[in-house]
Amino acid sequence: MSGSGEDIVQFSNVGLRYGTGKEVLSDVSFTLYPGSFYFLTGASGAGKTSLLKLLYLAQRPSRGMISMFGTDIITLPRDRLPGLRRRLGVVFQDFRLIPHLSAFDNIALPLRVAGVTEQDLQKPVADMLEWVGLAGRSDARPATLSGGEQQRVAIARAVIGRPDMLVADEPTGNVDPEMALKLLRLFEALNRLGTTVVVATHDLHLLKKVPDSLIMRLDKGRLSDPTGALRYPPRRQAALS
Question: What pTM was estimated for this model as a whole?
Answer without folding.
Answer: 0.88
